[in-house]
Amino acid sequence: MGVRDRLKDANRIVVKVGTSTLAYGPGRLNLLRMERLVREIVDLANQGKEVLLVSSGAIAAGLGRIGSREKPASIPQKQAVAAIGQGMLMHVYEKIFSEYGKVTGQVLLTKENAVRYHQYIHSRNALLALLGMGVIPVINENDAVAVDEIRIGDNDSLSAMVATLVDADALILLSDIDGLYTANPQQHADAKIMDEVAEITPDIERIAGGSGSRMGTGGMITKIDAAKVAMSAGVTMVIAQGSQEGILHRILSGDPVGTLFPAKPSHLKLRKSWLAFGKQLDGDILVDEGCVHALKNQGSSILAAGVVDCEGDFAAGNTVRVLGPNKQEIARGIVNYNKVTLKRILGRQTKEFSDLIQGEIHEEVIHRDNMVLMV
Ligand code: GLU
């Protein structure tokens, strides 16, 4: 059975809808599209599926309320407009969902909710409780308070965080583009939509980061970042065109629409998915080809012998990225040594450590149990 076919069995689904799909422009909600989206979601719920909606559009709606079409320039103004618009947005959702007999529950999250383990568990429990009550959670970033380091910044990343939080089977990003193209379709007439991207390679990141993308707030690169997180957490992701009628049903019937990012086969355990997404990243550890091979094929731990260099100011116990020779992110994990100590032992065998460093000796730089593969 192909991955597309397996989407037919997806039971817990996160749907993310971007501002460009929900609004004609600042201040003007596309009510017809919102109505269709809600109807489709309720139909899925009626089939017995659990659906969580991550919706942008707070700022767009807020601008409408205060009669402005200009995006707010300052951060406090943006916060204020989001506070106004979030209520409006919920009012519209509440109205349409209830017409189809469904109750909604608003959940506003920040990065903190995933980074701090306790908050992570509480957020997860709240979302699962809502699903248990047959409610459709309508989720957005808490834009009115989330600034600086607690801000996620884009709803693509937020939706991957939510999908990870609730162990979703599928994450569907509805956007104003119908998938990932081989090149920017506006500049290259021969650009083709990719049906499936099984691995986020540096090449894919380059394509996604190409200039001139006409996407909304996040753009394609944030969608690719979301794919990385989702795939390694065992969530299959699809990017598709939000304006297409019946798009969710087509995707969940296994139709070849949009671009599919299949979940990695091993579903991460709860703690590990938190490790991959929620933890703040404090540095990078560069490893050699042999180490990459051992990580990918033998599920090995990282030993100092395979480490080539390290960057960032990390302490023992922090979460770092593990990068291969071409700077591709291979894994994330909790490092047993701080940066200064690791610099002393990199490239060395464990038996040499006692001559090189003082303090506690660990055989592994990162133990396999504290590591999540990202490829
Ligand atoms: N949270 C923002 C809003 O509701 C949108 C962020 C995004 O579009 O990625 O307006």
Descriptive notes:
This protein has 375 residues and is an alpha/beta fold. Helix content is 39%, strand content 19%. A hairpin with a 5-residue loop joins strand 12 (319-323) and strand 13 (329-334). The radius of gyration is 22 Å and the shape is globular. It has a 7-stranded mixed beta sheet with strand order 5-6-4-1-7-8-9, sandwiched between helices. A 5-stranded mixed beta sheet has the order 11-10-12-13-14, with helices on both faces. It folds into 2 domains: 3-271, Acetylglutamate kinase-like (Carbamate kinase), CATH 3.40.1160; 280-373, Archaeosine Trna-guanine Transglycosylase, Chain: A, domain 4. It starts with a helix and ends with a strand. The chain has helices at residues 3-6, 19-22, 31-46, 58-65, 75-99, 112-115, 117-132, 155-165, 202-209, 219-232, 247-252, 270-277, 289-298, 339-345, 353-356; strands at 12-17, 23-25, 28-29, 50-55, 104-109, 136-141, 170-175, 236-241, 259-261, 281-287, 307-312, 319-323, 329-334, 371-373. Mean pLDDT is 89; it is low at 210-217. The chain is built from 15 helices and 14 strands. Residues 18-19, 56-59, 82, 140-141, 143, 154-155, 216-218 line the site of glutamic acid (GLU).
